[in-house]
Amino acid sequence: MNSKQKFIIIVALILLAAVLFWWLASGGEILSKDGIWLEQEISELDKALGLEPQKIYQEKFILGLLPHTTVISGIIVVVSAILFFIFKSKKTKEKK
């Protein structure tokens, strides 16, 4: 393995770690979401009367493992594998 191949592996691992960190920072959801349901705050009087809080829908993108994170990770792996074999040195072929 030559220095270019080592560099490709290191860059690919760093990018995969960054994607994993991004996914965990987004909430670690399995599926991607385009919004969340939030409970609206209610007053103490409403709580005493037994009223339920209303839920409102807020549009917010949450990165999920499927399909976004796996697609990004797959692209990184495929591109790095292609580059790894492109930069294979001729010295290893001559030794065989």
Throw out a few tags for this protein.
single chain; 96 residues; alpha+beta; two-stranded antiparallel sheet; 4 strands; 22% strand; rod-shaped
How would you characterize this protein structure?
There is one protein chain. The chain has 96 residues and is an alpha+beta fold. It has one domain (3-95). Helix content is 55%, strand content 22%. The chain is built from 4 helices and 4 strands. The protein has helices at residues 3-25, 44-48, 68-86, 90-95; strands at residues 29-31, 33-39, 55-62, 64-66. The strands form 2 sheets. It has a two-stranded parallel sheet with strand order 1-4. It has a two-stranded antiparallel ribbon with strand order 2-3. Helix 1 (3-25) runs antiparallel to helix 3 (68-86). The mean pLDDT is 89.
Question: Quick gist of this model?
Answer:
The chain is built from four helices and four strands, in the order αββαββαα.
